[in-house]
């Protein structure tokens, strides 16, 4: 089988960086992107198996150029992994749109992975805006997966990690400077800094899961990653199931007469 071509955003740190390593180890090809790709360096990368590209997901022209460069070099893109930054849900939409267009026009199909978070399923105190963005990605990805024609062969996966030892809660996390006395019972900065570097999840192991999800014959719509995420989603499913059953009479009492 010919090497798959992965286009991965945000490869300077975290999950993106680790996934590039796995892709190269597996013998596949990678288009690794970052705002400044000149700073990227990966063991085993060479001119035949990798392409380092500048990509600013807030700029549609930058997205177009990145995909154009990928097609020029490798003639295809099989997997696109998009790590959505909290402030840029619309950048994710633009990357997804371009990925779909590329896979559809080349008639190659492919897999689009959107990395969300267990925060896209579970509300997390002091991270309401973050969770909002993740829930938006979940809804967008599920809806658009139902809009594609089967013959296009385009599959979608929401990857929902729990807490991992990336730099997410370290230097990459910014905090508001305005505090409010009503919320003196919550210290978001202190809580984040306490767990930074002590989380259960290993990003390198997560990247192997991301890869396995990308190459399976029938990719999942959703997959939680991490023991904490697994525990939390099961708690939610249990609670939600009990709630649905408890209020089923009310839920089923609203149909129009004769419907």
UniProtKB/TrEMBL annotation:
<comment type="similarity">
    <text>Belongs to the short-chain dehydrogenases/reductases (SDR) family.</text>
</comment>
<keyword id="KW-0560">Oxidoreductase</keyword>
<dbReference type="GO" id="GO:0016491">
    <property type="term" value="F:oxidoreductase activity"/>
</dbReference>
<dbReference type="Pfam" id="PF00106">
    <property type="entry name" value="adh_short"/>
</dbReference>
<keyword id="KW-0521">NADP</keyword>
<dbReference type="InterPro" id="IPR051911">
    <property type="entry name" value="SDR_oxidoreductase"/>
</dbReference>
<dbReference type="InterPro" id="IPR036291">
    <property type="entry name" value="NAD(P)-bd_dom_sf"/>
</dbReference>
<protein>
    <submittedName>
        <fullName>NAD(P)-binding protein</fullName>
    </submittedName>
</protein>
<dbReference type="InterPro" id="IPR020904">
    <property type="entry name" value="Sc_DH/Rdtase_CS"/>
</dbReference>
<dbReference type="InterPro" id="IPR002347">
    <property type="entry name" value="SDR_fam"/>
</dbReference>
């Amino acid at each position: 089988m010919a090497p798959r071509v992965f286009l991965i955003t945000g490869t300077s740190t975290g999950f993106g960086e680790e996934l590039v390593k796995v892709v190269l180890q597996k013998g596949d090809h990678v288009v690794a992107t970052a705002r400044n790709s000149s700073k990227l360096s990966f063991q085993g990368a060479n001119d035949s198996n990798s392409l380092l590209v500048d990509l600013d997901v807030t700029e549609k022209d930058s997205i177009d150029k990145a995909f154009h460069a990928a097609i020029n070099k490798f003639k295809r893109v099989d997997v696109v992994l998009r790590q959505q930054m909290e402030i840029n849900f619309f950048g994710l939409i633009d990357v997804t749109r371009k990925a779909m267009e590329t896979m559809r026009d080349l008639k190659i199909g492919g897999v689009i992975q959107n990395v969300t978070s267990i925060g896209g399923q579970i509300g997390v105190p002091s991270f309401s805006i973050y969770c909002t963005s993740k829930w938006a990605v979940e809804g967008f990805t599920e809806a658009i997966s139902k809009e594609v024609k089967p013959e296009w062969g385009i599959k979608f996966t929401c990857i929902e990690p729990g807490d991992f030892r990336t730099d997410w809660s370290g230097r990459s996390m910014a905090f508001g400077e305005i505090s409010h006395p009503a919320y003196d019972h919550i210290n978001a900065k202190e809580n984040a800094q306490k767990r930074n570097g002590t989380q259960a999840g290993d990003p390198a192991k997560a990247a192997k899961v991301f890869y396995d999800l990308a190459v399976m014959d029938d990719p999942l719509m959703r997959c939680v990653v991490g023991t904490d995420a697994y525990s939390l989603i099961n708690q939610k499913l249990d609670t939600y199931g009990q709630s649905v059953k408890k209020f089923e009479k009310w839920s089923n009492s609203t149909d129009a007469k004769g419907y």
